[in-house]
Amino acid sequence: MSYPGYPPSGGYPAFPGYPPTGQESVYPPAGQYSYPAVPGEYPPAGGGTYPAAPPSTGYPGAAGYPAPGGYPAPGGYPGAPQAGGMPPYPGGPGFGVPAASPGFGGYPQPPAQSYTGGGPAQIPVGYAGGQGPSPMPGPPAAAVHCTQGTIQAAPNFDAGRDAEILRKAMKGFGTDEQAIISVVANRSNDQRQEIKAAFKTMYGKDLIKDLKSELSGNVEELILALFMPSTYYDAWSLRHAMKGAGTQERVLIEILCTRTNQQIREIVNCYKSEFGRDLEQDIRADTSGHFERLLVSMCQGNRDENQTVDYQKAQEDAQRLYQAGEGKLGTDESCFNMVLATRSFPQLKAMVEAYSRIANRDLLSSIDREFSGNVERGLKTILQCALNRPAFFAERLYYSMKGAGTDDSTLIRIIVTRSEIDLVQIKEMFAQMYQKTLAAMIASDTSGDYRRLLLAIVGQ
């Protein structure tokens, strides 16, 4: 597959690096947020927990994460902006520094959580000792599909008219940034691809090159990200995470541990066609040990996506993980890899709930005790997405702006890639978790056209 306007290799600088040791995130600090007890749910561990997700909306699960314009990429952590010029795209030193924090706290999920194509993975009250109910199939995925994006496809869309608006905004002396913002912030990714094609047909010029010549800094990076086809954006981010000196492990984790099977397979194919490289081979060359094995498992795109929850199997898996970790001296890492790499997200949620009863400890804290470094982060990412995906990305956004400096690349990546999927729910979770709106934090942390475009995408 070819993506006009984007070079097969190089052409864009790497994303800025991530923060030094001590600036990595922890899931809400202990005691900061309370989580009401819900019958049938396991109790929070460690004091710091996520609040309940908005009860009015459920977010899609593993099989229900397609978006009109494709899929997103998750976020990273704050890093100081690099001096001079446009902040680089993914790449650079400082990424993947081991976290200095004790890890993430409890991550319970309220019963309002729903999964596309199946019911919530909540274990009924009184379920114990492996005597769970029979698997309960949910409604067909097509009947439950919903999108919670802030950007929808524009009605009465005319690619030629939009191409003309962009041409006028860039023609002559000066640039009408507001005209550009009004178009790109209100079109789906698919529509932006049509605008790009119409621009070349009408004017014989490449829209991306024109935009790069007229814009600079963060607003340029943001607009170029908006015009990247979603699958290409993921493949491109993975390539730049492994290109050159150093490896951006968090980018690898955030993309490969959160995508559906179809999305991963499309990314693998795009990576090969656009960069002439094999993704699995690059992963093997840039990572090692149990972390390498987890990522290789992820890039196969073979996770079970059946949305039916088998509670007996959840109990068995929970017992298996307990015996592979807390219940023995040492850790059987391959057992954790097998379960977390193959089970569906609703199934993992049920397994987490069963584990808390067996171990009297939540599974996230057990992983915190049994693992370290990047493999720990990878395993946690999988579980956190199974438990509360909008909260996962809300936390990423918060720490991209918290403290001195802004990790603009992470901020851009999450806002752009979640804009057609679940940014509405991410905003709601953000306000619950941090007692401030996402828009308010963006407004206080950014400026100029960059701020205006981000706020337009967020829907403020």
Describe this structure in words.
- The protein is mostly helical and about 450 residues long.
- It contains 20 helices and no strands.
- The protein has helices at about 140-145, 160-170, 175-185, 190-205, 205-215, 215-225, 230-240, 250-255, 260-275, 280-285, 290-300, 310-325, 335-340, 345-360, 365-370, 375-400, 410-420, 425-435, 440-445, 450-460.
- Helix 7 (about 230-240) crosses helix 9 (about 260-275) and helix 11 (about 290-300) runs parallel beside helix 13 (about 335-340).
- The chain is elongated.
- Residues about 5-145 have low confidence and may be disordered.
What fraction of the residues are assigned to beta strands by DSSP?
Answer: under 5%
Main sheet summary: none
Q: Mean pLDDT, rounded to whole units?
A: 76
Instruction: Quote the distance from N terminus to C terminus.
Output: 35 Å
Coarse morphology: elongated
Assembly level: single chain
According to DSSP, the number of beta strands is 0
Order of helices and strands: HHHHHHHHHHHHHHHHHHHH
Provide the structure class.
mainly alpha
Runs in which pLDDT lies below 50 for 5 or more consecutive residues are 4-145
> How much helix, percentage-wise, in residues?
40-55%
Note the topology.
Layout: H1 141-144, H2 159-170, H3 177-184, H4 189-203, H5 207-214, H6 217-227, H7 230-242, H8 249-256, H9 261-275, H10 279-286, H11 289-298, H12 311-324, H13 333-342, H14 345-359, H15 363-370, H16 373-401, H17 408-418, H18 423-434, H19 438-445, H20 448-458
Helix pairs in contact: 2-3, 2-4, 3-20, 6-17, 6-20, 7-8, 7-9, 8-16, 10-11, 11-13, 11-16, 12-13, 12-14, 14-16, 15-16, 16-17, 16-18, 19-20
